Amino acid sequence: MVDKPHLDEEALAELQDVMEDEFEVLIHTFVNDSRERIAGLQHAADANDADAFAKMAHSFKGSCINIGAPHLGELCLEAEKAGKADSLDGAPAMLAAIRAEFQIVTDMFEGFLVR
User: Fold this and answer.
1) pLDDT tens across 8-51, in order?
2) DSSP 2
3) What b/e sequence results for 37-54 when a residue is b if at least 16 CB atoms lie within 10 Å of its CB, and e otherwise?
4) Element (H, E) at 86
5) Are 60 and 41 in contact (CB under 8 A)?
């Protein structure tokens, strides 16, 4: 079980300081890009393409960690490992967990942006 926080508020605060007025653009870009990555994961799973699944999960993981979404990043790491092991039997459950966590993170970002 993943026990990392949904958002690393300290990392987000640092990003906000560095990005200043562009912080909101960064968050919106992450959210939109993440939707495409989740769709890519689904496509790879549907095609039973473990290599593409692993690569997409790896890329998504890095994006999550960089933006301060460690729990989502950890879920992506689990998906990456499954793809590398050529074991996509658990992909539907992994994708469901990633989608659910992404929704939580997205909702939390909205709260973070209105501060």
Assistant:
1) 989 888 998 999 889 999 999 999 999 999 999 999 999 999 99
2) -
3) bbebbbebbeeeebebbb
4) none
5) yes
Quote the pTM value.
0.92
74, 4 Cβ separation under 8 angstroms: yes
Output the CA–CA distances (angstroms, integers) from residue 67 to 11, 52, 54, 74, 105, in the order listed: 8, 23, 20, 13, 11
Side chain identity, residue 38 = I
Alpha carbon distances (Å) from 34 to 16, 17, 55, 87: 19, 23, 14, 23
Tens digit of each residue's pLDDT (9 = 90 or more) over 49-105: 999 999 999 999 999 999 999 999 999 999 999 999 999 999 999 999 999 999 999
**Which structural domains are found in the chain, ordered by start?**
21-113 (1.20.120.160)
Report d(CA 17, CA 23) in Å as an integer. 8
